[in-house]
Amino acid sequence: YPWPIVKKAHELGLMNSHIPVEYGGAGLGILDACVLIEEIAYGCTGIETAMEGNSLGMAPVILAGNDEQKKRFLGRMIKEPLMCGYCVTEPAAGSDVAGIKTRAVKKGDEYIVNGQKMWITNGGVANWFFLLARTHPDPKAPASKAFTAFAIEADNQGLIRGRKVNFILNRNYKKKLN
Question: Which intervals hold domain Acyl-CoA dehydrogenase/oxidase N-terminal (predicted)?
């Protein structure tokens, strides 16, 4: 993983440009962020993907997280070069969200999540993950009611990172999460 480059990019303010100003970020709009991303990708798409992969995991928190979640998961991304992952894709469902099999069952104040995700950008190095799981007990429930989004710490008990998968373009990733 290209840690020296990621750390320097973080130091220069080139990472996590989508984080709103109120949580310590630059609060860049889509056009500004796209120009920044395009310029970095011109030099190396692998490095850009490593850096910008964070935006996948952060986007749901930015768009739908409450204030406490935004402070907890976004604020620390500004303080140090941390990574997050986006856990939606599964072996049997691919990127078809409606086909997700990972289940989350509420037990008291917590959820127990069981399932397997794959092709997780930054999966091998993420400090936290956005994860989508089926919570409705009826497998035929409409997608709008079937799923719950979770932000999960990488050191959470029971979370197992899978094997590293090398790609031609992005050899600096570990992409599977069990």
Answer: 1-79
Report pLDDT digits (tens) over 140-176. 899 889 999 999 999 988 888 877 766 555 544 444 4
Helix ranges (DSSP H) in the chain:
3-11, 30-43, 45-64, 67-73, 75-79, 143-146
d(CA 175, CA 114): 18
CA–CA–CA angle 123, 31, 47 (5° rounding): 35
The CATH number covering residue 76 comes to: 1.10.540.10
For residue 11, pLDDT over 80 is answered with yes
Number of domains in the chain: 1
The three-class DSSP label of residue 137 is coil
Structural domain span for residue 136: 3-153
